[in-house]
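Reading a protein record of the kind used here takes only a little practice. The integers have meaning only within a learned vocabulary of local backbone shapes. With that in mind, consider the following protein and its fold in token form:
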Amino acid sequence: MAELNTNETITADEPVVENEDERGEAEAEVPKRMNPLLWILGKRPMYHHRHIRANDSVYNRRWNYFENSISTSRYNIITFLPKNLFEQFQRVANIYFTLLLILQLIPQISSLTPITTILPLLFVLGTTLIKDGVDDLFRHISDYKINNRLVKVLQVTRETYGDGALGPATGTFVHKKWKHVIVGDIIKLNRDDFIPADLFIISSSEPNSLCYIETAELDGETNLKVKSALIETAEIEDNENLLSKFDGEFTTEPPNNVLSKFQGYFEWRKDGDQESKYYAFNDDNVLLRGCRVRNTRWVNGLVVFAGPDTKVHQNSGKRHYKRTRLDRATNYYVFAICIILLVTVSLVTIGNGVWEWLYGQYFDASGYLPYDQSVIDLAVVHTAFTSFLNFFSNLIILNTFIPISLYVSIEFIRLGQSYLISFDHKLYYKKLDTRARARTTTLSEELGNIEYVFSDKTGTLTENIMTMVKCSIAGKMYGFLESDFDEDYKTSGDDLGLELPPTPPRYKKVDFSWNEYHDPAKPFHDQTLVDVLHNKDQQVLDFFFALAICHTILPEADGDIDKLSYNAQSPDEEALVTAARNLGIVFAERSSNSISIKVYNSVTQEYEVEMLEVLAILDFDNVRKRMSVIVRLPNGGIRLYCKGADNVLFERTCDDSHELREKLTRQLKFFAKDGLRTLVIAYKDLTQKEFEEWNEAHTQANLSLENRDDKLSEVYELIEQNLVLLGATAIEDKLQDGVPETIASLAEANIKLWVLTGDKQETAINIGYSAHILNNDMKNIFIIEGTSFDEVEDELKTALADLHSAGKNKSNKFGFVISGASLKFALDRKLSKLFLEVASLCQAVICCRVTPLQKATIVTLVKNAKNVITLAIGDGANDVGMIQSAHIGVGISGREGQQAVLVSDFSFAQFRFLERLLLVHGRWSYLRMAKFLRYFFYKNFAFTWCHVWYGFFNGFSANAVFEPYYIALYNVLFTSIPVILMGITDQDVTDQYLLKYPRLYIAGQKGILFNKYSFFFALLKGAIVSLVIFFICFGSFYYNIYQGTGWETDTSFYFFLAITFPLTAIVNIQIGFDMEYWTILAFIVNIGSILVWFPYVLIVTSFPFYSVAPYWINGFPFVYSAELVLANTTFWLNACLAIAVCILPMMAFRFLYRDINPSLADDVQKEMTKDRSLKTPLIFIRDKIGRQRSPIEAIRYATGYAFSHDKGFGDLITTGRFKQSFYAKKQNSRKTPSPN
């Protein structure tokens, strides 16, 4: 077998093919055809690994790989109707009304026409169908835009000769839509292009075929990552003929969701080779879909995974149909009403049987109520059979216990609430011209029940813009923050025993206009440092030389040095090098063994170039927590520059640095209090002999084939001793506006925030302090960092014991931090319960180095185990899994990434908008929906129980007290519009006061506004109201109040008129008292719903209507009876009495209850009224929260060390595999304007 050209292998279960026989066996695996049903269902055969042949679409298509089309929608044209109906019939009410419709089709038991159920049911199903269709249409439109982006694809053709032989392959790049790209295609990408599929890099425009990419779509990070092609394929370059002839046969791992790993190999015979060879590749040679090409003119790649198989979509998970807690509760309550209905109908049926047994025969004999002959023929015991049929007749009559319009009204309310969120101008981010968007219309009230928020860090809490804002050099501090102008600035310094530099008269940026290389996006606020640097202070110069030299950044400029930019593996490194650059020490150029620094001379006002020879780069890793660079200075001396964590470097400093070390420790604590990320800077001068001896040991370790990394670390340790301290840097990882204030408000609203980030532990903890997730008032912060199951278990048990020993004292607050390596064990089935118990008892939780799959697993664990409502918020593709797993998913539509937005339920541009989304829109939506449900059940019980009371006087014969049109219109015309308007617009407390008092939100978490008690109270209230209305009206008839006016006491239609008006008026007056936000529209709708009763009864009793009405209404020939009733004084007295008896006790109870046992909302309403009269200005929590400094004695972490850096570009630099010249040659010195 030909040897692989690297030490990489694929995996043990994916062996290298050794001979052509095995190759034939591999080809034998290719399926000849695929079951069409599997294709429709989105299924395909599963293989242990993937086979691809470059430029051979016929071969590749035989494997039935997915094409590159993606779909985030829930339906397609085939599944839309059946799938949507299936989801709708998960609602108990829809099943109930379907069964009811079937019963109404049986004429022997139905006293109502089936049309009264068919039309409302079709309307309910149709409305929901249209709404869900429109929602999904927007997803299809979004998918269409992505799938129809254009990309250059190599189109290969072969000329066929007369004898059938094929000529050489030729090809040219043509534009194709993303959705038409298939596995095995070779595509060409240019600078700033999005990567359409997972690609193996063949070649690129950069020397050694490097390719720089931005992964903002994946993880929200804007710092560049570097990838590269293999040396063998890089020789193809951009030659279309060579690309067309490339016929490598690839074997790769199967599709999976591991973003940080990729393994595969390919067999290829290069031109001039006698036989084919095998070449291994890994994730360093692969570009993932969703990333973006940066600073690379072009790159050619082979598609290995397309569409749903790509890594980013493998992390997306399956899109689930989400239902709210109220939705699920409503199903249970509807089921409870079904039980009440069945019990009521059973009792009524028994009453009817008794009546039939005792009195039915007399009515049959008189011919007044003759039995149906079909009934007599079908049953000998006609009483029993009649009661049996009567059971179903009463079931139909009393069906309004469960109103079919309930779900339609809910959909309208949710739609209205969604539009209010989408058009809220206070959720609009002007800087990016981005509005909030409710991407689903079914989850708005769930926003009012959130108990846990899971958030990404980078791009969600932070802007990922890092700037060096302070530093300490030789014990003296430089730089100011805006918070340094607060009153506690000097006090906090005194606590540390520090003499802080006096603040300038005002907070002002340093003017760097004298520096043509300065970056205006990275300001500094201390002119003193510039003055000291220009005066050639040697310690300050050494400090900034260290920043400009000790890094692995690759510089680049597009033909003009004035546009110098840096390709950094770490945003921290970029911030430090840019700080030196702004102050006149410019890192300008790099080669594999040299570095060019331009130093501004304030006397000559020119830049002087200094070339330094790079002798070694001791790259960063998370164990060493430091990096070093050894250079030969222009004077011939050898110096090691080092930067890293304070605890690591302090151990390696010389004894002469003791005093400075003590002072620097206090200064680092001061920086940490401001939430700044710190690094310590040091150096060491080496003799030629020392370096040569060390370099020999370094060379030997570098050539080692076993434990190479460990041996290199040991060699690094030898040289990084007896360092001389220079100072420390303090970097601000800029939070998004309003993040600390938002987190403080959420905490007061009893919402727990868990940060799930891919960053390393120190970075995450640092941001935790900056964002007020963690604070120094916490009694303890548990850090779980075990690397084995037993270690993690012991650490969790120790933390749990400490938590239990602290008792239930609410003043004791705790934080919890766990690394990704430990989390792997903590999420194990045996430890997950312990992990969740410990984390739940802590006020703040931060999970570091978390994979996308772990994020989704954590959310699912909390959601299922604690039965709480969860929200996940993020901005990158690595957040998609947790966004889909949570009850509510929120996407941050930032500058770059949109993957999270595409699968989210709500989206906006800044994390701070989450405060308003939850505390304002969430609470309003929950309040409105809770009121709506209480009122809806109340009004329908008040309506339906009238039939039951009427049954006591008609032998429970399933006769309706109301005429059919009123039954059909009660929930449409007379009572629905006011309650829908209340469900969309009502608010008990204004948005300003909701933000001022976040604890108002807790009512939604506890389900106070709508629960089983309020549900059954609403049913009881409805039954009592119907009882009062019915018997007040019936009493009037019983005592012949209307005698002498030509009325008959047994006239049912007159009774219908007498009872429906007070019923209509009472339920609408009741909603008037429930509504707390009155507008002109609300007044018109509420009063109009009562007044519309009058034209209705006049029309129904008119002669023209009687002439054209259906047969079943002609059975009641009461033409012009409405005029007779309305002209009678007793009708009005009867209505007023019923309204007074029903409404006045409710009013008295409500006012008395609010006075004796007021809720927080009641107290806030009183304050609102008082403040309006006094015009008192509001003070919000956000006005009290700033960059707070905690008492220094509470600090347990000495510093805020954080370095967002894995391994840098050291290997690329030292091996020479990078771009040698980044910009056009320019003069080494330039005349620049004076800083004065």
In short: The mean pLDDT is 80. Residues 743 and 773 are 7 Å apart (CA to CA).
